[in-house]
Amino acid sequence: MAKGRILVVDDEIYIVHILDFSLGMEGYEVITALDGEQALEKARSEKPDLIVLDIMMPKLDGYETCKLLKAEEGTKHIPVILLSAKGRNVDQKIGFEVGADDYITKPFSPRKLVERINAILGQNSSHASPPADPRLVGRTPRPVALRARPSPCRLRACPSRRSPCRSRCVAPSPIASPSRSPNASAWASRCRRPSAAARAAGSWSS
């Protein structure tokens, strides 16, 4: 079910398409018109919930269209957002004097316009953040203790055991490598294996 019906009035067709897409994604039903005369006809017949109205249009400009809409009994309650490249204070003042509820200057953000429409109609945006879980409100998150993981031994084989080294070995320097140092005792001295008592206790120190 649509959130509401929006009448978009602009003589620039690409803006009509952009707003048609943006408002449709938000859940609104969009009605379009390309000039002021069409806007009056569709406002009377379609009864939209809100009108987005450009100012500079052929036949009947936005100021006059808005003034006529607010003068008629059947359309005076419909909110009107004026959309125009005229950004001077005097232009905005005229817009509010003829009955506009809001005034947005071009270039504009479609997302910002949707937010203004939602605010006027009292609707929630479909892109709003989801409500917080009431079970978590007021609770302080517990700190998570991260344990340092020992770096793996870089000795592929311990010469003293002739098997993959499972003790905490210190990586050899580039000079002290099996290919350059045939002395196995010098190589094994870099491997700090735990004693039998330390292994039984489950811990050892270097």
TrEMBL record:
<keyword id="KW-0805">Transcription regulation</keyword>
<feature type="domain" description="Response regulatory">
    <location>
        <begin position="5"/>
        <end position="121"/>
    </location>
</feature>
<feature type="region of interest" description="Disordered">
    <location>
        <begin position="160"/>
        <end position="189"/>
    </location>
</feature>
<dbReference type="InterPro" id="IPR001789">
    <property type="entry name" value="Sig_transdc_resp-reg_receiver"/>
</dbReference>
<keyword id="KW-0597">Phosphoprotein</keyword>
<dbReference type="GO" id="GO:0000160">
    <property type="term" value="P:phosphorelay signal transduction system"/>
</dbReference>
<dbReference type="InterPro" id="IPR011006">
    <property type="entry name" value="CheY-like_superfamily"/>
</dbReference>
<keyword id="KW-0902">Two-component regulatory system</keyword>
<protein>
    <submittedName>
        <fullName>Response regulator</fullName>
    </submittedName>
</protein>
<keyword id="KW-0804">Transcription</keyword>
<dbReference type="Pfam" id="PF00072">
    <property type="entry name" value="Response_reg"/>
</dbReference>
<dbReference type="GO" id="GO:0003677">
    <property type="term" value="F:DNA binding"/>
</dbReference>
<feature type="modified residue" description="4-aspartylphosphate">
    <location>
        <position position="54"/>
    </location>
</feature>
<dbReference type="InterPro" id="IPR050595">
    <property type="entry name" value="Bact_response_regulator"/>
</dbReference>
<keyword id="KW-0238">DNA-binding</keyword>
